[in-house]
Amino acid sequence: MMFGNKKKHPCLTDTDQLPLIDIRSLTGVGSSTFLEKQKCKKQIIEASKQWGFFQVVNHGISNELLKKMNDEQMKLFRQPYEEKSSSNNFLSNTYRSGTPTPMNQFSWSEAFHIPLSDIRSGNPQNLNNNTLRSTIEKFAETLSELALKIAEVLAENVGSDAKGLAGYFAENCSEETCYLRLNRYPPCPISSDKVFGLMPHTDSDFLTILYQDQVGGLQLVKDNKWVTVKPNPQYLIINIGDLFQAWSNDIYKSVEHRVMINNKFERFSAAYFLCPSHDTVIRSKAGPPLYKKFSFGEFREQVQEDVRKLGRKVGLPRFRL
């Protein structure tokens, strides 16, 4: 959900670097020992507790695929508006542009919001770009596998029945609700504190994996200050979503983040969102529960209702006991 809240945070320089974790021991890139794997897991858990965000390298996704994804994305977004939004397009009904709110904020961006089920089903049949589809399909497949691996690591640290929880995500996160979001942030000629590339928000999912190009703009909140993330196209960025915070009983943090506008350069990114089916019940798995149990469908409905009525997302505080 792309709507911010009313909290103000002072800006911080990018000297505080986002944790960078080598996850080759999880992805099988090269050889690794048991101790290296345990160290990797510990780093993921600590970053998720302290930051709610981290970067990964040796993630198992080739530079060739990342570059191809970026190239195909650039070609897709540079089509005329009529073609991008056409019902005859392979990505029909997935195109979005701009997000105004009653708070007079605006997201200077355009995006394709693509459920995994649409990618893997091969529908609609009137596909004109086989290269685009095959690239998106491979990209989504590899990110989906990585998301489940990261989720299982985080699950191992939650509750006494951790081993039984490891398969929870593979069982409940469906192709109908997990999705890719392809983003383009055009150069913005407007200078205003009400205009963002993407407005401040938290993610309404378990976790998100982001691939971004070399143009910066992503910021996140750390210790009540905005931290700028230095871009590196060889890294992937992973952040905890609202559902994981509730599911872990606040062990992990879903952190507010945003994308700033750029008046000179366009920016491209692609994000994978690990979401459960709408009827999946989210209940705290560690300690006395801090949140009442709720289904993902109920959570989404509450978020949408708050956006309609208040112009902003409230999110987890609505479900806190």
TrEMBL record:
Keyword Lipid biosynthesis: no
UniProt-listed InterPro entries: DIOX_N, IPNS-like_FE2OG_OXY, IPNS-like_sf, Iron_ascorbate_oxido_reductase, Oxoglu/Fe-dep_dioxygenase_dom
One Gene Ontology term of the molecular function aspect: oxidoreductase activity
Record SUPFAM superfamilies: Clavaminate synthase-like (SSF51197)
Pfam assignment, any one: 2OG-FeII_Oxy
Family listed: Belongs to the iron/ascorbate-dependent oxidoreductase family.
Entries under PANTHER family matching the protein: 2-OXOGLUTARATE (2OG) AND FE(II)-DEPENDENT OXYGENASE SUPERFAMILY PROTEIN-RELATED
Protein name: Fe2OG dioxygenase domain-containing protein
Organism this protein belongs to: Papaver nudicaule
